[in-house]
Automatic annotation (TrEMBL):
The organism of origin for this protein: Scopulibacillus darangshiensis
Residue intervals of the Metallo-beta-lactamase domain: 34-246
Keywords per UniProt: Endonuclease, Hydrolase, Metal-binding, Nuclease, tRNA processing, Zinc
Cofactor (UniProt): Zn(2+)
Descriptive protein name: Ribonuclease Z
Gene3D superfamilies, per the entry: Ribonuclease Z/Hydroxyacylglutathione hydrolase-like (3.60.15.10)
Subunit structure: Homodimer.
Length: 280
């Protein structure tokens, strides 16, 4: 039997929020955790869930927007200082440059720590797999079959599907509704879906502020509403929809209601520290 869990570490957005940490979730397959995105506060969220950051040897970035990577420096250096000696990262093109810039930024700090005799493994030799623009199957030694597909956002963004035995979890990344995601998520046990354009945001469209209206219009091309999240879940015929990427003051109950009007399966407006058990 495989012990399989999905833990929501951060269900927030770029707007700082005490109730919701930056976007991040972890899939744990027996004793192997795979981190997906690394938003603000990820290290602390992991520790609160009693997952040692040093035990995470695999990290997938859906995209490199600041809200999905704000926690990376802490994860990289903090995990290493706690004893991580191996790390593989999968992400879009630009992931290697991003990682190298972090090393550069902390060069003096790292040199000092290396001079104390801490081995460089796990920090200076990180394996980075940059995804081809068309996505596809990713060749890794992770205990899951990983398939990716490009989705619709304002920078290169990928949805990830993890097949573990007979179970499947799909993470949408930030995206507007798109067929490639429906195809990727087909039959998944769980779809973790961006539902950033929540009702309180929609309400703000009625504001007289022209600039705000303009921003919301742009967001409509880059994120989903709860109803669109529900429609994607229905089309993909998934078992459970977990919505995430919420702005502050989201009405989670209303978001669930809107998604449930479209999708008959189980609907959850995700919260930080939600754990879903999918033992096979
Ligand atoms: Zn984004
Ligand atoms: Zn985001």
């Amino acid at each position: 039997m495989t012990n399989l869990t999905l833990t929501m570490l951060g269900t927030g957005s770029p707007k700082p929020n005490l109730e919701r940490s930056g976007p991040a979730q972890v899939i744990t397959i027996d004793n192997t955790p795979i981190l997906i995105d690394c938003g603000e506060g990820t290290v602390r969220q992991l520790m609160k869930m009693e997952i040692n950051p040093a035990d995470i040897n695999y990290l997938c970035f859906t995209h490199l927007h600041s809200d999905h990577v704000f926690g990376y420096e802490h994860f990289l250096l903090g995990g290493w200082s706690l004893g991580r000696r191996k790390l593989t990262i999968i992400g879009p093109k630009g992931t290697r440059r991003f990682h190298e810039r972090v090393l550069e930024m902390f060069e003096e700090d790292i040199d000092y720590r290396l001079s104390l005799g801490i081995p460089g493994q796990g920090l200076m030799d990180v394996t980075i797999i940059e995804l081809e623009d068309e996505g596809g199957l990713v060749d890794t030694e992770m205990p899951a079959k990983i398939t990716t597909t490009p989705v619709i956002h304002n920078v290169k963004t990928f949805a990830f599907r993890f097949d573990i035995g007979a179970k499947a979890i799909t993470i949408s990344g930030d995206t507007a509704p798109v067929d490639s995601l429906v195809k990727l998520a087909k039959g998944s046990d769980i779809l973790v879906q961006d539902a950033a354009i929540n009702t309180s945001s929609i309400n703000s469209q009625t504001s007289d502020d022209g600039n705000l209206k303009n921003i919301w219009k742009r967001l409509e091309n880059e994120h989903c509403t709860p109803a669109q999240a529900g429609a994607l879940a229905k089309e993909a015929d998934v078992k459970k929809l977990v919505m995430t990427h919420f702005l502050p003051n989201v009405d989670a109950e209303l978001a669930s209601k809107e998604a449930s009007e479209v999708f008959d399966g189980e609907v959850i407006a995700g919260s930080d520290f939600d754990v879903f058990i999918l033992n096979d």
